[in-house]
Specification:
The chain has about 675 residues and is mainly β. It contains seven helices and 46 strands.
Length: about 675
Amino acid sequence: MSIWGKITGQKKYQHIRYDRYVDANTPAIMAPFTPVSTIRVEEVNLGLENAGNLAATCYVWFRDALTKRQIGNQIRLSLAAGSGVSVHTLSGFSAALFRGRDYELVVDFARPDINSYTAPQSSTSHYSVAIRAYGIKGAAVGPAWKFRLGDGEVVMAGREGYQATGAAWRTFDVREAPAGDGLVTFVDVVPAGTSMQVELWYTNNPTLAAAPGTTGWTYHGIVQSGDTIPPARYWRAKISYTSTAGNDDTPELSAISIIYYRDPVLIGTHVQAVPLTSGGTTAQSAPGLSRIGTASAALSPQLKQQMVGRMTCELAPEPEADYLASVPLRGHRAQIRVGYNGVPDTIGLYDGIVRDMAWHGNRWALTMDDIISITDAKAPNRRWPTWDAATAYNPGDIVAYNGKGWLALVGSTGVTPGSDPNTWQEYGAVWKELDYTPASNNGTNWHLADIAYDILSNAINLPGERIDRASIDAVKALRPAVVSTGARITHPVSGRKLLEEIAWLLQAQWIERDGQIALLPDPDPATVAPVETITPDDIAEGLQYRRGWADEKNECLILTGLPAGSDAGQPGNYSDGIVATDAAAVHDADAVLPHVFHDRWNVPQSELTRIATDFVSSWAGGRAVVRATVSMRLMALEPGDVIRLQSGQLPGGRSEMLMMVMRVDLDWQRQALRMDFLEV
């Protein structure tokens, strides 16, 4: 069994037909796999065959399965026409693969040179390139160094991704002296028992930048991902990391970047002088918008794997819009600003990255979006005691050593795992527990909002600039008593699942807004002040409403503890919980949909009682969701704003409701502004 890609065609009077076109964006062969340990691959052994009648140049590389970004080097080789299956040893990859993440091994090949196929010109001649990839059978290596492909396995070689305590240096050149502040961003994973810090120095002197060390550089300090940095061309980073005893776990750092954003291309409804961050003013590039469509992420306590905010716009056929055709906009930051009669200043509708620009009939159309992709990991997976040379081990014992689990095949003392295959057998990767006890937080209880930030930044591989830390801190200030009195997550569980549970306890929603993950609290109807009142004169069409929505439940069951041996790691304190059912909601849904919430965070009992009571009163009956087309004067509203909606069409004979904006969609061409609201 194998996987394969194929190009076929024919040649007649030099007229060429391709049955399949293969390029870098549509690789011929993709073998998905997930490493069980962090490794740096330097060599790959796999079987390859070309069953076609033309020779082919092949390219082999690794890439991230989610982002499709190439990892490490691309290796090139040639396969002769009609060559049989042979094992190829390919060296020079230098691909860093992290445990628990999804990757693909790509085998691609170029279109053949048909002119080298010397068939008679007066006849129809078929040609083909048919590449097949095979796994090697009977490979005697540990599970960290192989993955399944058909009936065999692709075998990798290299070195462990774990390393001893130490430091690494990186130098960055942004190619010019920036005019304004920038950002430092990086992705890091810091398991329990390890530590990492990133320090920065900067200079504008090219001579200093070419020399080693930091003599003469300006010290900026220790930074976190997403921190603001001053303008400078050259930066030098020192990454200091501390491993656990025995080096069985180390921190991981990837994709460290120094970013300076240029002033955005401005697109709007009329020319207006707009101040620049670098000083001075500029006119908007395009004075006419024919059509705008926006979509913000719907509110949900569950953190989705991919959250998308998007803006599409068509530019009116004005001479100024033609200027944009000469600007390389793909990948460029752009800002949409619109003005409307009665609005004294233009309103910023969107600030994002241009993904596409296309000509449609007689005008240009732009698509911009911010896509947040979350690499989820189950944390933790396994936890075993670290191997100790003085301990006597019995057959069946499992230990952790050098980032791996090891199963004792025979009794032994002082035999290092990995040194004798007859004593120890490799037993998969080791994942450290998530420790949110006071001991891991300088003796104080963890607040659930701080746990949420830790999971976002360290468990699901989300860059710091994609996290709206201010929104999480605001929820922390609003719910100061929602703390964990000592939680250890010791069993496999999805990072997204943990964040969903935290959102329920914090009575908040995860949303995507302006390219960031944000945490939005459910407003308190007794204290919240609406920012706007929407009257019947603002409503262009009849209201559409329903009870409940995607993540609402008609029954609430909150369990205030978990049995012994659970993730909470506490003695059994399994309570009866709190149950409530709303008859009208059950009738509307024609079913009881219970929400069972397991508190694995050891929240104080008084807080759980309060949360359960609020949960029942707010959610058990299902809150109304209203959709309406409203006046364009309301286009400055955004998700999270609370408004007062007045209408004789509201459910239950009510004349007004306090509601939170869930979604905003704008069609500038039709002068239509559609919003979804959730009852507060």
